[in-house]
Specification:
alpha/beta; TIM Barrel; 4-stranded antiparallel sheet; 13 helices; binds magnesium ion
């Protein structure tokens, strides 16, 4: 089997309620930006990265796929995933201009497409290729009820509804003021009771003194983790926070390489490991991070730039993956949506990585690639 063509695409899909915000920005759409890889055997693989649906930025990614990555892949045997990963990541010209950022997001999309293709060619869902089912259930936690843009009363109602739907975990955004965030979290904890896990996510906005003040106030709330408390690359700051607070530190959604994670492991600066196949160089690099996390006996909770379409396969098959993020924005775009039933992800059944968009989604949400 040979790769005949690599064709980029961009979809912009509306978010719940048409607008959401965290501590750093608000968005109206989620960007599904990627590539279809066709072969002479008739199989096609689909892969994508996740973006804030900023069309000029998304077009930089699709341009990178079309002009830099496609020529490296076309004519190749797609089953040699590790070799093709190195061919892209260690291409001297690409390495020189970007070991992170647009080139890596583009790489993520094609790596996911290659895994989708490999699973389709084998006639199995991706989790079978990744080692097979390792657990009875994959617990989901609900992120979509906790945006900073949601007013206080609505936040509490949403958290209760989420628990009524069967979720045993939720996540709430923080990063406004410590006082407001603690007030909101206290109200949520009262509403959901002690048995539902409550995580918070700061999106890297606060500095260390603010995080320390927040953590002192939040200790009675039994938080499951504090995600991205500090600036994404600040290993030393996270290590200080991890030592000073009893609230576990989670991070990784903005790290591009296994080496970046290694620093956090070595400094004791991370408790929950959150790699993302759409941010790093795809499934291939995230598997390396999952193995490293497992070697450090740290749990993985993948960040869902793919809205868990792909990560659900990792979570069923890798022993380090403990819990998975649920956000429903794009699921209806795919032939096999990542479905949560009674607070747990359904086991995918169709061959591939659950990344094949429906014809309807391609018609409804497509944007020009350039
Ligand atoms: Mg986050």
């Amino acid at each position: 089997m040979r790769i005949t063509q690599v064709t980029p695409f961009i979809l912009h899909v509306p978010v719940t309620g048409n607008q959401i915000a965290d501590s750093t920005h608000s968005i109206t759409h989620w960007g599904v930006v990627g590539a279809r890889i066709d072969t002479d055997a008739g199989h096609s693989g689909w892969g994508f990265t996740g973006t804030h649906a900023h069309l000029p930025g998304d077009q930089l990614i699709t341009r990178c796929i079309a002009t830099c990555l496609a020529p490296l892949l076309e004519g190749e045997d797609p089953s040699g995933i590790q070799r093709l990963w190195l061919k892209v990541a260690r291409n001297p010209a690409l390495q020189w201009i970007g070991r992170a950022g647009i080139t890596t997001l583009a790489h993520a999309a094609v790596d996911v497409a290659l895994w989708d293709l490999k699973a389709k060619a084998a006639g199995v869902p991706l989790w079978k290729l990744l080692g097979g089912q390792v657990r009875e259930r994959v617990r989901a936690y609900d992120t979509d009820i906790g945006w900073l843009s949601i007013p206080d009363a609505q936040l509490v109602d949403g958290a209760k509804r989420s628990v009524d739907r069967g979720y045993t975990g939720i996540k709430v955004k923080v990063g406004s003021t410590v006082e407001r965030d603690l007030r909101r979290l206290e109200a949520v904890r009262r509403a959901i009771g002690p048995d539902v896990t409550l995580a918070v996510d700061g999106n890297g906005k606060w500095d260390l003194p603010t995080c320390l003040r927040f953590c002192r106030g939040a200790e009675p709330l039994d938080l499951y983790w504090f995600e991205e408390p500090l600036w994404h690359d600040d290993v030393h700051g996270h290590a200080q926070l991890a030592r000073a607070s009893r609230i576990p530190v989670a991070l990784g959604e903005q790290l591009y390489t296994q080496d970046a994670f290694s620093e956090f492991f070595l400094q004791g600066a991370i408790h929950w490991v959150q790699p993302d196949v759409t941010r790093m160089g795809g499934i291939t690099e995230v598997l390396r991070v999952c193995e490293a996390a497992h070697a450090h006996r740290l749990p993985v909770a993948p960040h869902a730039g793919d809205m868990s379409q792909v990560h659900v396969h990792l979570s069923w098959s890798h022993p380090a993956c403990q819990v998975l993020e649920s956000i429903p924005w794009i699921k209806d775009c795919f032939e096999e949506p990542a479905e949560v039933v009674d607070g747990h992800f359904r086991l995918p059944q169709q061959p591939g990585a659950s990344t094949t968009p429906t014809a309807g989604a391609l018609a409804r949400h497509a944007r020009p690639v350039a």
